[in-house]
Structures are given as structure tokens and as C-alpha cells.
Amino acid sequence: MIQALIFYVFAAITIASGVMVVSSRNPVHSVLFLILAFFNAAGLFVLLGAEFIAMILVVVYVGAVAVLFLFVVMMLDINFVELRQGFMKYLPIGMLIGLVIFVELFFVVTSWVIAPDLITTAPAPDASQVSNTHALGALLYTRYVYLFQAAGLILLIAMIGAIVLTLRSRPGVKRQRISAQLARTTEETVEVVEVPRGGGA
Amino acid sequence: MDMNAILDTYVIPTAIILAQILAIVVPLLVAVAYLTYFERKVIGAMQMRKGPNVVGPFGLLQPLADGVKLFAKETILPAGANKLMFAMAPMLTFILAMIAWAVIPFDEGMVLADINVGVLYLFAISSLGVYGVIMAGWASNSKYAFLGALRSAAQMVSYEVSIGFVMITVLLCVGSLNLSAIVEAQKTVWFAIPLLPMFVIFFVSALAETNRAPFDLPEGESELVAGYFVEYSSMTFALFFLGEYANMILMSGITAILFLGGWLPIFDIAPFNWIPGPIWLALKICFVLFFFLWVRATFPRYRYDQLMRLGWKVFLPFSLLWVVITAGVLVAFGWVPDPVLG
Question: Which partner for A17 in A37, B27, B64, B160 could form a disulfide, CB atoms 3.0-4.6 Å apart?
Fold first, then answer.
């Protein structure tokens, strides 16, 4: 009973904060509500017994992705009154896209079944025998190792792409060369000069 | 259900857990108060001063006097501040510093929540710490606070990466994410010895993660007055202060558990194993904390670009390399640990 109660609390807060993400006026509040939604989703995972995924959700999405969101939203000077002006103009297109996505999701959810051969070939490990982390690792690094590597490769390409897009080589920029700085010796940088009395100025 | 059943299933377990939480939090808060005293005494001794010595015998009541002073001051809400977030930020910092202690094992089986993913929980909680800082800086609506918050956020995110890799190295050697299992795995040798470079990186990253000297740029008083909490006063300031010091103790505790054998005695022989485990853990935490203070009294502050360079260009590649080396050695010599359940 307590578990069901906690589930409804988490679920209600997740949905409510999800609504607030899109409806709140202040973009910083939106991001903070997004964080709240992530956090409650992590709570739902814990209730499911998926503790590893819950923690990874918090580490990756709350600890890294949302921080970057918050950074960008705080730093950019966006005029939100101006952004909202075309709302009625874009409403039909937005609703159309929303409808398409909803229909697609509906078909996916209604027609989705667990592959019948999967239950026999790769049964879900007994949670009392194997911990979450080991079960995931044993599957991820053996059965799905190529997909795992492919995902890593895609991320690497995305990272390189982001660097290439933002890297500008401007002339006249003074850069530090740490190795050159560290390689300096006393002999080549300091000179002791004998100055006669009264001749220093 | 009759009254007795309700009492047995809900009331009594709740009361026990509340008592356990209090048994952790109250000593922790006392420790935080006396860490400030310890800091002032240690730095005083290093600078050939006496440190606090007026309030009470040896100045022992100084932290209480400071607490009462902060409590009696006026709480100021800046006119341009976002009131709700301004008030929430210090609470968030303080709460996060407290809840991380739920998974810290003080002795064999002496832990509030013995969860399988203890290390990940600690990592998640410490990565949330940045929100208290960002919210404080943004809600204050002040240039200094905002600059301090941005610096701090970038710094904490950067050093978290190398902390993550250090934790992965330890996990490879243990085969479990459970903190008790990590301590148990150090019965033969503490990880500080075979993983010495990782130990050093973890300690330095912990300094950066807790915004301590020489990485205390977020509150660099010479440039930013006090950084992200410049607008805070009274108890709101005190909560940041408590949170920061509780985080220091927490990072020392994690260092002790990951590298210095947690509650295990130095040698498992007669005079050493008479001392109970929690006292060993406390001694190790104090030892690491002393290093925190020693570093503060010794090193000048880093420049910001040097800080970022150290994090991304030195620690990150090195810890990544060390993960690969550790994994390679474990596989090559057949030392890969069996998965530990629980």
C-alpha cells in the first residue's frame, strides 16, 4: 500500500513538473522543473527495482545535461515576449506534429509485445541472485557489445562535430604554451647587471 | 488492521529509522562545528598564531558562539532577488550534504541504507551539489554572485569527470558498487597503495569539488568578494557554510572508504583491532581533513585557466589511462574479482 502511494506521489510530481516545464514563463524555472521531473523519474525506477538506471539517470541527466541546459538558459539573453508573439500562427502546425507523434506512440504501445523467443533465450535474471549492475553489464558487454560500441562511436562523432563547428582560428590570438613556459631556465630569462652607483636611473 | 499491527508495521520502523538518522546527523553537525575550530587552530599553528583561544577553555566554545552570532543576525532578502529560489538554494546545499551520509558504512553492517549502488548514489548526490551554487548565484541577481556561480559550476562539472574515473578504477578492483564491499575488499591491502596515483588525483579533485583552496576561485575574495553567496546573511549563509564543511567531511569520508580501508584498522593485530571500527573511520577522516587544511595554509590560489587545464588536460587523460591499465593488469594476471552480491 505504501509502495503504491509512493508511486502515485512520484508519478504525479513527474507529470506536474513536466507540464510546468512547457508552461512556466521563466526559462530557468522550466529547467529546474525538468530537473524535478528527472528526479522523480529516478524515484520511479528505484520503485521498480532498477536502482542502477535510477542512479545513472540522476548522474547523467541531472548532474551533467541539465547543468549545461541551465548554463545556456542563464547565459543567453533571449527575449521571451518576442518568442511568444507568433504563438497562434504556429499553433496548427504544432498541434499537427503533436497529433502525428501521439498516433505513432499509440500504435507502438498498443502493438508492442515481448518477443516470444526472448523469454526462453535470455530470461530476465533473478533479482535476488544477481545485482542490477552485474546483470546489465553481463548483457551490455556480451550480447550487445557491437551496438554499445556503435553508440560510443556516434557520441564521439557528435563530439568531434561540435568541436569542429565551434573551433575558429582567429589571427592574433596569444596562446599559452605551457611546455615553453616550463622549459624556461634562469639563465635565459634573468640577467644580473652590475649597475654603478647613481647610474640606475 | 488493528492498532497493534499498524504500530508494528509502520510506527516502530519509522521511529527506528528516524533515530538512526538523528544518530548520524547530530554527530555530523557537531563535527562540522568543530571542523571550523580545527581549521582555525591548525592554520593558526601553521602561521605561528594561537587561533581561537578566548571563548571557553582553549577556545572550545568558539564554534557555538559563532553559531549563536549567525542565528541572531538579520536575514536579508535582496530586493531584486528571486525570493523562492534565493531561499531554496542554501537549503538544497545543506540537505544534499546531509543525505549523502545515508550510504556511508561506519562499521561492518553499521549503515543506514546498505544499497547495491552506493558509490553511484554518492556520485549522483555530489553531482547535484552544483545546483545549490547555481541557484544561489542566479537568484541573487548580482554580478559577483552570478560570476562566482558560473565559475563554480564549470569547476565542479570538470572535476566530477576525473572523480568518476577514479571511482571506476576502484570498482574494477572490487567488483561491486556497494561501499561495505569496497571496504571489505581492502582487508589485505588498502587501495591507497596499489592505486596511489588515483588516490592523489581523487584527493586533488575532492579539493576542487568542495571549492577549497587552492581551487577556491568561486569565492575568490580578491575578485568576487565572496562569490555565489555574497548576498547571503545570517542563517542562509550559515546553511551554505555548514553544507560546505559537511561536504568536506563527506569527501574525506569517501576518500577513507575508497582508499584508506574505511573502518578497518591499520594492522589487524592486537592493539589496533581493539579500537572499534567507527573510531578508525573517524580517525581516517580527521587525517584526510588535516590534509585539506594543510593545503589551504600552504598553497596559493590557482588561476582559473590553470584550474581548467589541470582538470581536463591532465587529470582526465591520466585517470582514463589508469582505468585502462588497471583493467589490463587485472585481466592479464587473472585478478578480476568475482561479482560480489549485495
Answer: A37
* Residue A143: DSSP 8-state: T
Give this complex's ipTM. Answer: 0.80
CB B259 within 8 A of CB B189: no
Band (pLDDT 50/70/90 cuts) for residue B330 is: confident
pLDDT at A121 over 70: no
Q: Which residue among A32, A51, A129 places its CB closest to the CB of B117?
A: A51
Q: Quick: pLDDT tens for A140-179.
A: 888 889 999 999 999 999 999 999 998 888 888 887 788 8
- Indicate yes or no: CB of A55 within 8 angstroms of CB of B117: yes
- Structure confidence at residue B342 as a pLDDT band (50, 70, 90): very low
Q: Which three cell numbers stand for residue A88?
A: 497562434
Hunting for cell 540522476 — which residue is that?
A58
Residues in chain A: 201
Chain A residues inside the 8 Å CB shell of B85: 32
Nearest neighbour of B127 by CB, restricted to A59, A71, A133:
A59
Q: Which residues in chain A are contacts of B130 at CB distance < 8 A?
A: 63, 67
Is the CB of B157 less than 8 angstroms away from the CB of A67?
yes
Query: Mind giving me the DSSP string for B50-80?
Result: --S-SSSGGGTTHHHHHHHHHHHSPP---TT
* CA distance linking residue B121 with residue B197, whole number of Å: 24
Q: Is the Cβ pair A132, B116 closer than 8 Å?
A: yes
3 state SS of B110: strand
Q: Which of B8-12, B101-105, B211-215 has the highest mean pLDDT?
A: B101-105
Percent of chain B with pLDDT over 70: 96
Residues of A150-172 as b/e, b for ≥16 C-beta within 10 angstroms? eeeeeeeeeeeeeeeeeeeeeee
Residue B69, Cβ density class (10 Å: 0-12 exposed, 13-18 middle, ≥19 buried): exposed
**SS3 of residue B107 by DSSP:** strand
Residue pair A55/B120 in contact (Cβ under 8 Å)? The answer is yes
Q: How far apart are CA B205 and CA B199, in angstroms?
A: 10
What is the distance, to the nearest Å, from the Cα of residue B167 to the centroid of all Cα atoms in its chain?
A: 14
pLDDT in tens, B113-135: 888 888 889 988 888 888 888 88
Average model confidence (pLDDT) across chain B: 85
- One-letter amino acid identity for B123? F
Contact assignment for B124 to A55 by CB distance below 8 Å: yes
Name which of A35, A58, A71 is nearest B153 (Cβ-Cβ). A71
Using only the alpha carbons of chain A, give its radius of gyration: 28
CB atoms within 10 A of CB A180: 8
* pLDDT at B42 > cutoff 80: yes
At residue B341 the predicted structure's pLDDT band, cuts being 50, 70 and 90, is very low
Q: Give every CB contact of residue B252 below 8 A, 6+ residues apart in sequence.
A: B206, B284, B285, B286, B288, B289, B292
Model's pTM, two decimal places? 0.84
Query: Backbone phi, then psi, for A114, in 5-degree steps?
Result: -70, 135
